[in-house]
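quick one, 184 residues, struct below
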Amino acid sequence: MAINITVPMTPETARTLKAGDSVLLSGVIYTARDAAHKRLCELAAQGKELPLDVKDSVIYFVGPTPAKPGEVIGSAGPTTAYRMDAYSPTLIRLGLTGMIGKGKRNADVVNAMKECGAVYFGAIGGCGALLSRCIKKAEIIAYEDLGAEAIRRLEVENFPVVVIIDAEGNNLYETGKQNYLASL
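---
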């Protein structure tokens, strides 16, 4: 059974989630990929205000395709998360509590998650057209020059994700494989 979470998501809520939990996110999430992450971290290093409040926020690693006429957004499948690994610890320490992507994360990201109370969600790659149906509103809020990689504010409803790495550092990619091999 899926856990329903309305974003913003506090560290306390993030800490209740466990690797393997199915979650339905509703509320406001943001999009950003590596180029946007780099700019956000440069602003943070300069002590400047970010174009979004990352505190208790969830960032979806996605570069959606253009919307067809009458659609809110085009296909919106997750991108590989490791490209954000150099930047994620900074944003987590600024209050980011959730990230959505696909693939592994490095030890620095996991340590920041454990320290601050954040989780890494996985969305299913290849299902971008289906995932886009959960996006009810999309607007570019920063870095329009990045095109598909611009930062967008998305309003989502019942957006399906799975907790891949929880705030204790438990990793579904590791435990899932171990459980499978133990069942053979």
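The longest strand covers residues 151-165.
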